Amino acid sequence: MSYVEIQNLSKKFGNNIILDQISLEVNKGDVVAIIGPSGTGKSTFLRCLNLLEKPESGDISFDGNKFDLTDKSRKRQLELRQYTEMVFQQFNLFRQKTALENVMEGLIVVKKKSREEARKIAEEQLFKVGMSDRKNHYPVHLSGGQQQRVAIARALAMEPELLLMDEPTSALDPELVGEVLNTIKKVSQEGNTILLVTHEMNFVKSAANRVIFLENGKIIEQGTPREIFGHPSSKRLQDFLIQINMLSNVEYVI
Fold first, then answer.
1. 173 CB-near residues (< 8 Å, 6+ apart)
2. Domain residue spans of the chain
3. How far apart are CA 164 and CA 184, in angstroms?
4. pLDDT tens-digit profile of 114-130?
5. What is the reported pTM?
6. Under DSSP, is residue 117 helix (H, G, I), strand (E, B) or coil?
7. Alpha helices (H) in 50-190, listed in sequence order
8. pLDDT, tens digit, for every residue of 137-174?
9. CATH number of 1-83+190-254: 3.40.50.300, 3.10.20.30, 1.10.10.10, 3.30.70.2750?
10. Can you say whether the dihedral through the CA atoms of 251, 24, 87, 153 is positive or negative?
11. Cα torsion for 31, 32, 38, 40, to the nearest 10°?
């Protein structure tokens, strides 16, 4: 049995089918990158997995513990959210709290940790993402890249079974993208299980061990980065890679 199993996930907005019976298996420690054209349901897919969007159908299992994603009971929704954490495009930090307090917040409110224990965990995670020297700074005094690294530390502090990253560099100036991608690569190498939506294809090639090509709410193709970028089997994926100038121009970090 796979570590995370997603079965028959469907989502509509009005009469528009956004996700169409998607099923996916993820092993522990996998870094799965989801790529595809804009507006094809990639972010909605992640948002359905922690119920920021409510799907029409679908289940998710964590090591055999199964959740019905259409279950409206508050108790079951809170239980599911113990398994996942989301890193957003826009950081979503509390402006009135320091970097340290932002990371501590979920530990105190959700996990009921003491302030002392929460502080210790938060400081450890900020150190991991290279933000110890900015722990007492407020978001307004941090660059976009620094804010995103705090957001990653906040997510990691909750020890999720599945880390969801929704285009975590899309809101950053180009010169700040590298520092966040390096942080995510480090996080991925520490054995965290990650589902990542991104347009940073060179990063996908070097950090992901599986790639999903999603279009029109369906998984068109999936495989290793070498298979997806070097030997795409569907014409649609070939066309997509040509359009973004990635086909046959591939360097791999092994």
1. 144
2. 1-83+190-254
3. 11
4. 999 999 999 999 999 99
5. 0.90
6. helix
7. 74-81, 99-109, 115-128, 144-157, 174-189
8. 999 999 999 999 999 999 999 999 999 999 999 888 88
9. 3.40.50.300
10. negative
11. -150
